[in-house]
Amino acid sequence: MNLMNHEKHYNTLNNYYQSKYNRKVFKIALNGGFTCPNIDGTVATGGCTFCSYMGSGDFAGNKLEPIALQFQKIKSMMHQKWEDGAYIVYFQANTNTHAPLSRLKSLYEEAITLDPNIVMISIATRPDVLPDDVVAYLSDLNQRMPVQIELGLQTIHQETSDFINRAHDLACFDDAVKRLRAKNLEVVVHIINGLPYETKDMMIETVKHLNTLDIQGIKIHMLHLMEKTKMGYAYKKNPWTLLSLEDYVDITVEQILWLRKDIIIHRLTGDSPSSMLIAPNWTRKKFVVTNEIDKKLRKLGLYQGDYHETKSDLGNGTSLTQTSPIEG
What we know:
This protein has a single domain, classed as TIM Barrel. The strands form two sheets. It has a seven-stranded parallel beta sheet, sandwiched between helices. Strands 7-9 form a two-stranded antiparallel ribbon. The longest helix is centred in the last third of the chain and has 15 residues, at 286-300. By secondary structure, it is of the alpha/beta class. Helix 7 (200-211) links the parallel strand 5 (186-193) and strand 6. It is globular. Helix 3 (101-111) runs parallel beside helix 4, helix 7 (200-211) packs parallel to helix 9 and helix 9 crosses helix 10 (286-300). It is built from eleven helices and nine strands.
């Protein structure tokens, strides 16, 4: 689906939803009170080193409240910005398939009935927490309400994945995508730019690999170093060089140019709770980041997928090398 126009040189989420539903669509982020398998010991402990379990889901509802109350509160806040629109109920915080099927059914079935203007349910999870019975149920649910699965990947590089304690491998991720797509479930992948030790070429390789998979969307985030995280503690003790705004724009623009034209870009940068952010400070101004990306694409006169089709590159011979002194 090519939803690019003269203003944006890539497929934007807003255009995608406007085309699909002919109205404004926004997410209502709910907190189902889930944990993660690499926190509770199912596959590992400690969680991803960049992630604050305390802060995970800060933009979602209060897990101590019923999801119906969460929905109404967040919906009211959204309507302060937009007068009207359709809703996506979004299970955002932590790993939202990490529970017995009976509990998942109870939460999801309630969520899709909270308002007649709900048009989709979006579920954020990990590739290693999608057992066959859950995938079968999601397939059934997808017949009644469109289901979107957000899958965390972050990087295709195993050394980096091990370093940040993802506790799964690329084969597990690839298999999860194939199993979800076999049931016609929409897949949106999360990746992070600026992870320790990764070069620009490595970050581009992550996007090139995703081009080979049947995915429908992508969220590109910048690494945020936050309080109450293992990586944040390490950075405060012994800071290392992070990507600058210019570095991030350069890398992300090239990723967009390599990304297949049919993939919808859901995000080009990420948010972190202001009170928890350690660095980089430029990530606080996400509109500046997206504007700089737009400006560079317009200056180049290129669009999403142009490199994927032509197999060319920027031609300037430069490659950013990112290293980190973090220990283990």
